[in-house]
Specification:
homodimer; alpha/beta; five-stranded parallel β-sheet; two-stranded antiparallel ribbon; 7 strands
Chain lengths: 205, 205
């Protein structure tokens, strides 16, 4: 221990552990990986859950197309290789956030089971919560908020998940949010209750 | 506003802003970008500064070779293109952490001015603090903790910064830590004082 008189810093040599950061935050870092069809409600749920948690004094952050596709993954296209690399990089970033103590919501279709399983394999036990945002193709196509399904049916978007490319649902997700029948509020409540029960939200120090 | 009775969640619709997260943390997100020769002390300073801040109840996190080169950037080599892509990705990840409210220390040689300037250009005003960890080649080679300079001199490591590849020092860094003459404690104190004066450390709510 050395005291630096110029700034009152007491410097204890040593590395900072994840536990140290989680103690500061009063929560446990985790990757909440939302997967589902376009229009299933992934981003709506992610943004709403982030909002609820931050209102409660937790540190939560959403990774989604807006901040990833235009940034880190702006040099990736939509070939099979690039789609896998897209998910791989997101998984690595989610892992860093998890280790920093943040509750990170990842909101991407992520249609391939193997890509998602590769991300799970990066993470420690309990650090990866796979959430199927479950809405049928009919439900999603009926919503078609962005008009993408119409374009996909017209052949204007190739390799569109659910229409001309497969969606491989998780076999054993930690959680299923059935947005066919429940409201955003209900899905968020279900998700937050899961995190609470799992001890991720801790008690604010 | 909708109240969900099943879990006492009061859900206010709306997006979470960076300000919201920074209020939770009682600090301002920032990327502290440490640049300098191998052996200049970047990682030592980064790890020690992280430790001081976390001890003070701040959320700080270090990005370095250990968690980036083996993870996100494990598919990059050392060609000029790959070196640039390495720094680009680190910059994008640092930007995400900054937007999440975290104080992130980036510890990479990052020898090219243009690569660092590209990262700066990604960030908002005050979000990028470039820190030259300044030790002469003689000082670094004298330390040679990992024996890398010896190998580089023997021609066993090609394109080694300072020996067989250039290091372009920042022209206008926010901070210079002269590790030729000052201790780790002094450098950390100087860095933390800069962050404190700049209002990054706020007041814990």
């Amino acid at each position: 221990m050395a005291e630096n008189k110029s700034s009152n810093i007491t410097w204890h040599a040593g590395e900072t552990t994840r536990d140290d950061r989680e103690s500061v935050l009063g929560q446990r870092g985790v990757t909440v990986w939302l997967t589902g069809l376009s229009g299933s409600g992934k981003s709506t749920v992610a943004v709403a859950a982030e909002h609820v948690l931050v209102q409660r004094g937790r540190l939560a952050y959403v990774l989604d197309g807006d901040n990833i596709r235009h940034g880190l993954n702006s040099n990736l296209g939509f070939s099979p290789e690039d789609r896998s690399e897209n998910i791989r990089r997101i998984g690595e970033v989610a892992k860093l956030f998890t280790e920093s103590g943040v509750i990170v919501f990842s909101s991407f279709i992520s249609p391939y089971r193997s890509d998602r399983d590769n991300v799970r394999a990066l993470m420690g036990e309990g650090d990866f919560v796979e959430v199927l945002v479950d809405a049928s193709l009919e439900t999603c196509e009926g919503r078609d908020v962005k008009g993408l399904y119409q374009k996909a049916r017209a052949g204007e978007i190739p390799e569109f998940t659910g229409i001309s490319a497969p969606y491989e649902a998780p076999e054993n997700p930690e959680l299923v949010l059935d947005t066919n029948v429940q409201s955003v509020e209900e899905s968020v409540a279900q998700l937050v209750a899961y995190l609470e029960k799992g001890g991720y939200l801790g008690a604010k120090a």
